[in-house]
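Readers outside the structure-tokenisation community will struggle with the description of the input data as it stands. What matters is that the chain and its backbone geometry are given together, residue for residue. For illustration, here is how one protein appears when written out as sequence plus structure tokens:

…
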Amino acid sequence: MTTVRYCTPEWLKSAEEGYDDHPRFRQEMAKLTSKVCFKVQAEPEWGLDEDIVFCGYLEQGDLQKLAFMSEEAARGEADFILAASPKEWKKILRKESKFVTDFMLGRITLEHGSKVGVLSIAPHSNTFVDALTQDELQFPDEMTDEELAAFRSHVQGFRADLGV
């Protein structure tokens, strides 16, 4: 199994390729059409000096977009923006917590869109997590000091390149 660093373009590219390679995801999400953005809140100790937003857009189960974007663009395009700390997203992606539970408990907050709308797509959350975690994820709190410094530099670089 390949290891990719969380919250990087390499992670999203790997997840997108895996989604396309496994018909299971498309089949399980065939009834889903939604534009969801996920805000990972700033956590300087994790090398994330500013909030970062990535989106997953699906149309009848077809993955249309999995990419980083500016918060401004997300507010203009997305049906929903969900925000949480990177530690909370880690728990979701490691399957130590469930999206619906954490959303209902307020650990994941809705910044854009309707709560009813989020709950209508929530049954697909486990499948989406599976799609995002086909490779082993390395989170910044699991990096050495040197790896974390390189990660922080990488994040700053791709954010500047992408304008996010």
